[in-house]
Specification:
heterodimer, A: alpha+beta, Ubiquitin-like (UB roll), Alpha-Beta Plaits, five-stranded mixed sheet, 7 helices, 18% strand, globular, B: Rossmann fold, de novo design (two linked rop proteins), binds flavin mononucleotide, binds iron/sulfur cluster, binds FE2/S2 (inorganic) cluster
Chain lengths: 332, 444
């Protein structure tokens, strides 16, 4: 076991736990945001750099601070390690930089993007970005592609998190999905269009943190916050059959896996990730196909949940009011 | 000229063939090494103080001693011959002229590390050098220096040359490993380090061409003798690729510790600045290291003469110093535009980023575009601060050191030549309009 302190909160976790996982055990604002890490996908993380944190003490054995910021999703904890996340101005500044880089070529077409309202990049930019933009250059563009008959790839929106690549590697045995070209021009591709044909390929849509991979059966049907999420299940030979239905009136507009507080697929009772198959996702669009369990609570702080941004704004206002009162009291 | 341990006998006809190389004492070090215990060879390299010649200058003996040796698992030695850093061309020169010194070094080093399969990963553009190496390897096999039971020692070694496909990033050691495994050349996230999990997940050492070649003279003259050359922790000789506005560009083998001034102006080396011009600036160790203005490259901030050593070149940190890097020594005369130079470097880094991490993928392209606009006379004063801010947000925040390599040249150019950036903004320079057009950098 290792004792680690993150922003002043101490917790004991098994050796080999990453800083992010330790922070998630503590919970709250001190959890570093993650755009590419996905706990149920092996070798994910390390790419986007949003989870950079400062290790001010390496361990009890070797208390030296780490010379550079480290990625919390890959760095494992040591006994006695001390980490700063939101208490380090250096971290906050670096993260602001990462947000700016991620948005540099992002089309910001949220008004027409199906992901809007449950988009990790929207949340990240609101919470960790700066206002305005400093670039004057035309954004990078790619043609839109079908990668499989039910999945649309908007490469313009992609942040190169590699999550879909890991899904292809780990869930779809005949892998035809990867990255083409280099650097600025790198793009996700199936190489031969529509070459993904696998019962599990739809899970790419669920892991995509932005609107780069979208469900063609749901495209432009509705804004997500106008749909009602329900927990439901059915007997499926292929997958666990436990899903979230996104319903409007009697119509099932969309079927997804059940995502938890960090926007990742929840595990089923047997402890395995609840990936769902393409039949459940794309074919079962009648309420009668499903056993409804009840309304689904959306934890994720996005516009569909409890007006999170409003609360944030309120919090900030409260804080400044308190500061004002404090200053007044001080001046009196 | 100081001692020549790598480039000696270069003018001897046939030095590129096995027989020619053997006539100058070639493969004698191998015979000697095969009589030694592997750990004694490692100790000899440790004693020599040899430091990695690929750029980072990490002590080679120490790197070798870190190699994990789990029983029953193969170990690999890989020679990094991907040499693609702008301004660096020493490895190519050595392999082309004297291929057998690298092969002899590979055999000795593989023996020392207990590797029975080794690779030379060569930059794809150097196809002709690939053929030279392959021919030399064939000769070595025929002579019994490679293959089974080398010179009756019981040691087996297979040596392969593998051609890259022309990506600078594949010179980064873990990207190289991925590429060698047949995958996309993306740097790996460390740890684990190659010494523990490298090629095919097995313990692996990656060394530069010059590093491995230097093992040959170290065995011949002993580590102790080798360590007597040079100053302090900068021991031995170093190949310097000298280019730019000098009278005698080319590859020079120097004893570490030669004063920079002597290296630039002496007829033994660069022979002074071309056309009687004045020295303006030097990039001392390949495109990644900070550029220094003439006064700071000749003398440290304390007024001491700057020497060609790892320590002296780094004296003053990045505020007033630089790095020896890979030894790509680029000299610029008074007529050179540092802004155009850094624009060119930034174009390179923009083109070569693998694109895995967001700061490098996006930041390199952004810096390049801002510099292009600046050169086109459309820059604004705030662009200089913006460039500074971008490079700062890349440096130290990426998976591999490429991000730093892309950030440092921009930072150094602004640090030492800010007024030149300002001139482009004030004047709206018109002789460079084509930058804008070529690159089609429309604003949104
Ligand atoms: C972007 C990048 C490119 C590199 N290119 C080369 C190269 O072409 N040749 C080389 O020997 N080392 C290169 N390196 C350094 C290698 O990663 C590695 O440190 C080196 O091969 C180790 O050998 P050494 O210890 O003998 O110097 C590069 C590093 C980076 C980050
Ligand atoms: S398409 Fe989506 S999941 Fe795939 S790399 Fe891009 S952002 Fe990540
Ligand atoms: S720093 Fe650049 S080259 Fe290195 S891994 Fe990141 S994107 Fe690739
Ligand atoms: S979440 Fe850690 S680097 Fe992307």
């Amino acid at each position: 076991m290792a004792r680690v302190t993150i922003d002043g909160h101490t917790i004991e976790v098994p050796d080999g736990t990453t800083i992010v996982e330790a922070a998630r055990k503590i919970g709250g604002d001190i959890v570093p945001p993650t755009m590419c890490y996905y706990s149920t996908l092996k070798t994910s993380g390390g790419y986007c750099r949003t989870c950079l944190v400062k290790v001010t003490k390496g361990s009890d054995k070797d208390p030296r601070p780490m010379p550079k910021l480290v990625v919390a999703c890959r760095q494992t904890v040591m006994d006695g390690m001390e980490v700063q996340n939101i208490t380090s101005p250096e971290v906050l500044e670096a993260r602001e930089g990462v947000v700016e880089f991620l948005l540099l070529n992002h089309p910001l077409d949220c008004p027409v993007c199906d992901q809007a309202g449950e988009c990790d990049l929207q949340d990240l930019s609101y919470e960790h970005g700066d206002e305005g933009t400093r670039t004057v250059f035309r954004r990078r563009t790619f043609p839109m592609r079908d990668i499989g008959d039910k999945i649309k790839l908007h490469m313009n929106r992609c942040i190169m998190c590699y999550r879909c690549v890991k899904v292809a590697e780990q869930l779809c045995p005949e892998r035809v999905h990867g990255v083409l070209n280099r650097g600025w021009d790198a793009e996700i591709s199936t190489y031969i269009e529509k070459a993904i044909d696998n019962e599990w390929s739809g899970n790419m849509i669920d892991v995509c943190p932005v609107g780069a991979l979208t469900d063609k059966t749901f495209r432009f049907k509705s804004r997500v916050w106008f749909t009602k999420p329900l927990d439901a299940h059915r007997d499926c030979d292929v997958c666990c059959g436990r899903v979230a239905l996104w319903v409007s009136g009697d119509a099932v507009l969309r079927v997804t896996g059940r995502k938890g507080v960090y926007h990742e697929i929840e595990n089923t009772e047997d402890g395995k990730p609840g990936w769902i198959c393409n039949t459940c996702r794309f074919e079962k669009k009648n309420l009668s196909d499903w056993v409804i369990e009840g309304p689904r609570h959306i934890d994720r702080h996005s516009v569909i949940s409890q007006n999170h941004y409003e609360q944030l704004k309120q919090l900030k206002q409260d804080l400044s009011r308190q500061k004002l009162i404090g200053e007044k009291a001080h001046n009196n | 000229m100081g001692r020549q341990l790598l480039l000696d006998n270069l003018d001897k006809p046939g030095i590129n063939t096995l027989s020619g190389y053997q006539e100058t004492g070639g493969y004698e070090s191998l015979r000697k090494a095969l009589q030694m215990k592997p750990e004694d060879i490692v100790a000899e390299v440790q004693k020599s103080g040899l430091r990695g010649r690929g750029g980072a200058g990490f002590p080679t003996g120490m790197k070798w001693s870190f190699l994990a040796k789990p029983p029953g698992e193969p170990r690999y030695l890989i020679c990094n011959a991907d040499e693609s850093e702008p301004g660096t061309f020493k490895d190519r020169y050595l392999m082309q002229r004297k291929p057998h010194i690298l092969i002899e070094g590979m055999i000795i080093s593989s023996f020392a590390l207990g590797a029975n399969t080794s690779y030379i990963y060569i930059r794809g553009e150097m196809m002709y050098v690939y053929h030279i190496l392959q021919k030399a390897i064939d000769e070595a096999y025929a002579a019994g220096y490679l293959g089974k039971n080398i010179l009756g020692s019981g040691f087996d070694l297979d040596l392969h040359v593998h051609c890259g496909a022309g990506a600078y990033i594949c010179g980064e050691e873990t990207a190289l490993l991925e590429s060698l495994e047949g995958k996309r050349g993306n740097p790996r996230i460390k740890p684990p380090f190659p010494a523990v999990k490298g090629l095919w997940g097995c313990p692996t050492v990656v060394n530069n061409v010059e590093t491995i070649a230097a093992v040959v003279p170290i065995i011949r003259i002993t580590g102790e003798e080798y360590a007597k050359i040079g100053i302090g922790k900068s021991t031995g000789t170093k190949l310097i690729s000298a280019s730019g506005h000098i009278n005698k560009p080319g590859v020079y083998e120097i004893e570490l510790g030669v004063p920079v001034e002597e290296f630039i102006y002496s007829d033994q080396y660069c022979g002074g600045i071309r056309n009687g011009k004045k020295l303006k600036a030097v990039v001392a160790g390949g495109s990644s290291v900070p550029v220094l203005p003439a006064d700071l490259i000749l003398k440290t901030a304390n007024g001491e003469p700057r020497l060609m050593t790892y320590e002296s070149l780094a004296d003053g940190g990045f505020a007033t110093g630089t790095m020896l890097g890979s030894g790509g020594f680029i000299v610029m005369d008074e007529d050179t535009s540092v802004v155009k130079n850094v624009w060119n470097f930034s174009r390179f880094y923009h083109h070569e980023s693998c694109g895995q991490c967001s700061p490098c993928r996006e930041g390199t392209g952004w810096m390049y575009k801002i510099l292009s606009r600046l050169l086109d006379g459309k820059g604004e004063t705030k662009d200089i601060d913006l460039l500074w801010d971008i490079q700062r947000k890349i440096e130290g925040k990426t998976i591999c050191p490429f991000g730093d390599a892309a950030a440092w040249p921009v930072a150094a150019a602004i640090r030492h030549f800010r007024s030149e950036f300002e001139q482009y903004i004030d004047k709206g320079n018109s002789d460079v309009k084509h930058y804008y057009r070529i690159n089609n950098l429309q604003e949104s």
